[in-house]
């Protein structure tokens, strides 16, 4: 497939065509034909499947009696459409928006260090003798 395409694609350059574009085009065509053959094969397998019924194949729910939700099919016109929300329902369904103050009173205070900042290439403060980035800074 692709190996044969790769071997023969250099000849396209002699015909004044871009080999990369031709390679992409032919690879795409090959890919689409592969997808089509997979689709055909899988449909063929599906249509050839035959169900085999056995007495012992009841499965996990074999002892549970089967019960339908409706005794007969319900026409579509009898099904209730979903209820639309009115403006009063929206207020109850959604939590209220919080109004955030942008004043200085409610702003969180910045974090302040008690000791000086350790640089990545400085000696580690734990006393190991290694650089901070190789020791505790990992």
List keywords for this structure.
single chain; 138 residues; mainly alpha; flat
Topology:
Blueprint: H1 2-8, H2 19-48, H3 87-93
- Secondary-structure element pattern, one letter each: HHH
Question: Structural class per helix/strand content?
Answer: mainly alpha
Query: Distance between termini?
Result: 49 Å
Tell me the number of strands: 0
How would you describe this protein?
The protein has 138 residues and is mostly helical. The chain is built from 3 helices and no strands. It has helices at 2-8, 19-48, 87-93.
Please summarize what this structure is.
With 138 residues, the chain is an all-alpha fold. The protein has helices at residues 2-8, 19-48, 87-93.
